[in-house]
């Protein structure tokens, strides 16, 4: 039910994009208005969400420590897994964000009993997650060529690495295949691993279908249903220089692709996809374990009612005296 | 015994069925986890069942006696005795074996007139069930013993220094079991 | 005659829930899985809301009027105060990496014990009231209303979380279920839905200084009983001091160790070590609790209890504080105390009077862990040790959740243990250090009425102990936590009956060769030392 809903939602969106591309009167809306709105929503939405998180303070220093603390000089500290300096925290965050350190932990296995099948699924999750996110990034960088005069070096290098197989015309990009495979895997595990199926929400299936739709429309456009590429470039440059134009004869598949991307951009700030920002703000990861070295300040720390020593001594003075325990007031 | 020879040939099929059927007694999402997670430390329930039934089955085939099989029964029952099972649910896994064997070698039984041997084998399974009742009861008794022991450990020092410990005044005097425990063992740190 | 059910039918009763969404499966509150409700009198002492006697097993929980409003108001308040809570409500992608990492899920198989789902119990309500998609799309966005069934489900499952943080180690965003459980318990606290096993000790600790409710003279006499036993074993008479002004060091340890075996042997260990060093230290009857059950109730209550430690250090004029072996006590001391009740600028940077080592890693808090202190002594050769006295023991070490994942105290206790016993074996890698399994009874769930829950939760830990017992003949499970000493004892009795439980300083004291001691023939448990029995 949750899955079907998400599936049909994405189909519906693709059809909308199709309609938008077919009708010349709608092309301006789908080619200019919606993309602008999407980018604006994305930027403002992300800023709003991050600012909203940042508005809540971090009252306590609560890193999850995953290694030896800073202690006596002769005990080797695990400076990245249990950092006590900001350098260590940076390293920890870099490992987390770039290599998904925590997910990788799942694969660490020592003893195995019984049949040979081991912790496969967990390792696959790490691998698929990494493949998915990195391909996404590479594809994003590649797309920047549409928005720039000439081809900046970074983009050129990325493209040539991505197409190092040197097969096909146009050259086949590895990441196109990788992202489709990774998304498929991430989807299938939601269907076939019962625990994961049990916890999955519509909000988990929807982005997978959406990204799958974007990737498929992109692949179709590049390799099969050729679009008018010069027109696309012209349109992109128009958008980025704020002089939007709608060249003719680009091809309807492009509008589907563009519309799904616009939906994704608009969807990000309101969904779990905000994890891209959240991971940087997570207090169990981005704080140093140095709360015994430097006092951490809680901005809303307030005085509380305590049972003072004087009250305590008043309660027990005679008993303390007869037990020979020193008291303040005789 | 022809039957036992036949069963040792079919051992892996029987065990797989038996394991699956036992695991099916858990909720669906749990049973998948029990089946798939093969690391014995990440999945002690699944691996204990898996190893336990293999040893029990081997024991039956070799005709081992009660004392030799009961540790393996114990491993499984000890877990099921604290999970959300009623006593019959907890012990039903023994009886599942009968049906699996009948299904697994149905054809051979009628072809080779093995029914007499089968009856004998089944009565051995029944014996296992009787031992299991015993183990189950021991486990449940152990739980109560542990509760009692915790209280004893706490009160030992208390008794040593009788009258030295006072409790915040309790208006009502309805002393139930848990009140008693609370009075004597608050916290534990 | 009615047809009797077949084994297959029997086995499946109630256990295969229809393929329903988890939201449509209300919690079935089962005996053996929950703790008794708090007594009104204890809540009154603490000025907690809705103080009354109540029972979770009854239909009517005697909730205050408009409890939904109370919870939602508190929910908004916590979101504005804790970034952790807000982010953990928002960023979960339900990847499932945490699902099989919880000891309660592994032992019980109840899907709502998967950390992700435990958190979703609360996230679903968050979405309904605090996100636009949840308000508009409702169930489709994974949102649901807060009603009595939801509240009961929360109560049941957030009292099946020991805040051990193991899930947080594996989560790619570091989502820590402990933070969510803490918030849930804050809400329960506002409705008077406390459990007695926590509220009782908290009330005691508030009024009397420790969870057990030991009054000052009782603390003294408890310790005097230990002194007698120590004299029997070593022939040495020890005279500790209490509430002594001008002492260099204040010693604070969980009160559980003053009362229940085997924690008592650890307390004897401290006494012997300090005596041997001639340490200028004092016990306090006012700050006589290192642990903090307030931490399992509300942030405010935890701070109220914790305040005593610095207040007492100031009153007595000590230079620094030494803390005993305890798990959650050290999470609190490491990550909370200085923030709540600091700065402790009236003390000095802790410096070992024996070795001169400055404990730079505690220079702000001024509080040192006893195994840091002892490891430093051993490293400098300041203790005369005879590890052969522990030769009859094969020892393994259980990392406490809190010292492992809320501090990173991993090598210090191991160094001490390896110095005082000759036979030390580690449990498998994925069950120790930052991946350690909980004892199954932390966060105040160590009552007796929930024994089934405790045994299930203790299974993954016990299973690893069983492994080293079978492989190496391990017969002693050492740890640095007072709750562990009480609860692992029970878990071992059930799962691995031939393994005993001890604190690290019990083994140290057994191995400690003291000046002027008689030849030891007994260990601290007054059991004969093998090979050293008195010859008749």
Task: Considering the chains and any ligands shown, give keywords for the structure.
heterotrimer, A: 330 residues, mainly alpha, Fumarate Reductase Cytochrome B subunit, 2 domains, B: 189 residues, 76% helix
What does this structure look like?
The complex is a heterotrimer of chains A (330), B (189) and C (536). In chain A, 62% of the residues lie in helices and 0% in strands. By secondary structure, chain A is an all-alpha fold. Chain A has 2 domains: 2-290, Fumarate Reductase Cytochrome B subunit; 306-330, no CATH class. In chain A, α2 packs parallel to α11 and α7 (174-192) packs antiparallel against α9. Chain B is an all-alpha fold. Chain B has 2 domains: 2-143; 148-185, no CATH class. Chain B has helices at 2-9, 11-23, 28-36, 44-62, 66-80, 87-104, 106-112, 115-160, 177-185. In chain B, α6 (87-104) packs antiparallel against α8. In chain C, strands 2-1-3-4 form a 4-stranded parallel beta sheet. A 3-stranded parallel beta sheet of chain C has the order 5-6-7, sandwiched between helices. In chain C, α20 (482-495) links the parallel β6 and β7 (500-503). Mean pLDDT of chain C is 92; it is low at 10-18. At the A-C interface, α2, α4, α5, α8 and α9 of A face α3, α4, α6, α9 and α11 of C.
């Amino acid at each position: 039910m949750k899955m079907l809903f998400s599936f049909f939602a994405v189909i519906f969106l693709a059809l909308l994009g199709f309609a938008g591309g077919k009708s010349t009167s709608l092309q301006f809306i789908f080619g200019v208005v919606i993309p602008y709105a999407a980018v604006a929503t994305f930027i403002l939405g992300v800023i709003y969400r991050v600012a909203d998180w940042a508005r809540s303070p971090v009252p306590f220093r609560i890193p999850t420590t995953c290694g030896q603390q800073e202690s006596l000089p002769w005990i080797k500290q695990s400076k990245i897994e249990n950092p006590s300096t900001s350098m260590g925290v940076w390293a920890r965050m870099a490992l987390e964000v770039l290599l998904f350190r925590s997910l990788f932990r799942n694969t660490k296995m020592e003893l195995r009993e019984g049949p040979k099948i081991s912790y496969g699924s967990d390792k696959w999750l790490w691998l698929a997650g990494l493949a998915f996110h990195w391909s996404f990034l590479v594809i994003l960088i590649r797309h920047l060529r549409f928005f720039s005069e000439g081809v900046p070096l970074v983009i050129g290098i990325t493209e040539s690495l991505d197409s190092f197989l040197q097969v096909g015309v146009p050259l086949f990009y590895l990441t196109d295949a990788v992202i489709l495979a990774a998304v498929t895997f991430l989807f299938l595990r939601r269907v076939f691993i019962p625990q994961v199926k049990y916890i999955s929400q519509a909000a988990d299936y929807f982005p997978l279908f959406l990204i799958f739709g974007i990737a498929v429309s992109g692949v179709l456009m590049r390799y099969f249903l050729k679009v008018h590429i010069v027109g696309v470039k012209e349109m992109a440059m128009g958008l980025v220089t704020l002089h939007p134009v709608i060249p003719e004869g680009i091809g309807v598949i492009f509008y589907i692709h563009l519309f799904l991307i616009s939906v994704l951009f608009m969807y990000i700030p309101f969904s779990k996809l905000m994890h891209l920002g959240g991971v940087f703000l997570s207090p169990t990861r981005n704080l140093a374990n140095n709360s015994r070295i430097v006092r951490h300040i809680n901005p809303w720390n307030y005085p509380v009612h305590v049972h003072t020593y004087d009250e305590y001594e008043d309660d027990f003075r005679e008993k303390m005296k007869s037990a020979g325990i020193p008291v303040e007031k005789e | 015994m022809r039957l036992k020879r036949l069963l040792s040939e079919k051992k892996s099929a029987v065990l797989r069925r038996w394991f699956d059927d036992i695991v099916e007694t858990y909720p669906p999402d749990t049973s998948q986890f029990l089946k798939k997670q093969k690391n014995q430390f990440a999945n002690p329930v699944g691996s204990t069942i898996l190893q336990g039934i293999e040893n029990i089955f081997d024991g039956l085939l070799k005709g081992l006696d009660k004392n030799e099989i009961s540790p393996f029964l114990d491993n499984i029952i000890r877990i099921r005795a604290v999970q959300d099972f009623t006593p019959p649910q907890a012990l039903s896994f023994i009886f599942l074996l009968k049906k699996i064997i009948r299904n697994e070698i149905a054809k051979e039984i009628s072809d080779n007139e093995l029914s007499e041997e089968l009856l004998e084998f089944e009565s051995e399974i029944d014996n296992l069930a009787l031992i299991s009742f015993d183990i189950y009861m021991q486990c449940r008794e152990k739980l109560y013993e542990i509760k009692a022991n915790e209280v004893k450990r706490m009160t030992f020092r208390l008794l040593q220094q009788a009258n030295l410990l006072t409790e915040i005044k309790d208006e009502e005097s309805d002393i139930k079991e848990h009140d008693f425990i609370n009075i004597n063992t608050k916290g534990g740190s | 005659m009615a047809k009797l059910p077949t084994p297959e039918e029997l086995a499946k009763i109630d256990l295969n829930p229809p393929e329903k969404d988890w939201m449509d499966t209300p919690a079935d509150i089962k005996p053996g899985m929950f703790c008794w409700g708090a007594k009104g009198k204890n809540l009154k002492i603490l000025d907690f809301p809705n103080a009354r006697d109540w029972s979770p097993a009854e239909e009517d929980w005697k909730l205050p009027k408009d409890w939904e409003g109370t919870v939602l108001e508190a929910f908004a308040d916590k979101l504005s105060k804790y970034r952790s809570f807000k982010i953990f409500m928002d960023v979960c992608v339900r990847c499932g990496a945490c699902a099989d990492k919880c000891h309660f899920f592994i032992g019980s198989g109840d899907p709502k014990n998967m950390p992700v789902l435990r958190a979703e119990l609360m996230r679903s309500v968050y979405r309904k009231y605090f996100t636009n998609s949840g308000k508009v799309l409702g169930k489709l966005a994974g949102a649901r209303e807060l009603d009595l069934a939801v509240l009961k489900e929360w109560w049941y499952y957030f009292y099946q979380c020991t805040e051990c943080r193991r899930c947080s180690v594996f989560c790619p965003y570091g989502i820590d279920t402990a933070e969510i459980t803490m918030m849930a318990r804050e809400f329960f606290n506002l409705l008077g839905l406390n459990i007695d096993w926590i509220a009782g000790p908290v009330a005691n600790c508030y009024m009397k200084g420790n969870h057990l409710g030991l009054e000052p003279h009782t603390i003294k006499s408890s310790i005097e009983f230990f002194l007698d036993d120590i004299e029997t074993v070593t022939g040495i008479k020890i005279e500790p001091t209490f509430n002594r002004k001008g002492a260099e060091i204040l010693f604070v340890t969980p009160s559980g160790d003053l009362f229940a075996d085997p924690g008592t042997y650890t307390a004897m260990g401290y006494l012997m070590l300090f005596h041997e060093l001639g340490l200028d230290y004092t016990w306090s009857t006012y700050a006589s609790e290192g642990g903090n059950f307030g931490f399992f109730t509300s942030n405010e209550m935890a701070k109220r209890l914790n305040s005593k430690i610095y207040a007492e250090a100031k009153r007595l004029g000590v230079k620094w504080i030494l803390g005993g072996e305890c798990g959650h006590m050290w999470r609190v001391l490491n990550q909370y105390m200085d923030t709540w009740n600091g700065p402790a600028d009236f003390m000095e940077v802790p410096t070992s009077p024996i070795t001169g080592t400055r404990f730079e890693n505690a220079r702000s808090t001024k509080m040192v862990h006893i195994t840091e202190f002892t490891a430093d002594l051993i490293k400098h050769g300041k203790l005369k040790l005879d590890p052969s006295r522990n030769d009859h023991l094969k020892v393994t070490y259980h990392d406490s959740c809190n010292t492992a994942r809320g501090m990173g105290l991993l090598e210090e206790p191991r160094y001490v243990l390896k110095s005082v016993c000759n036979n030390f074996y580690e449990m498998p890698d994925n069950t120790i250090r930052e991946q350690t399994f909980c004892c199954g009874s932390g966060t105040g769930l160590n009552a007796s009425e929930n024994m089934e829950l405790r045994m299930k939760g203790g299974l993954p830990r016990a299973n690893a102990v069983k492994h080293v017992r079978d492989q190496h003949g391990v017969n002693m499970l050492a740890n640095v936590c007072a709750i562990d000493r009480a609860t692992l004892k029970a878990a071992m009795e059930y799962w691995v009956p031939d393994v005993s439980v001890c604190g690290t300083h019990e083994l140290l004291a057994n191995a400690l060769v003291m000046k002027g001691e008689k030849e030891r023939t007994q260990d601290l448990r007054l059991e004969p030392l093998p090979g050293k029995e008195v010859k008749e």
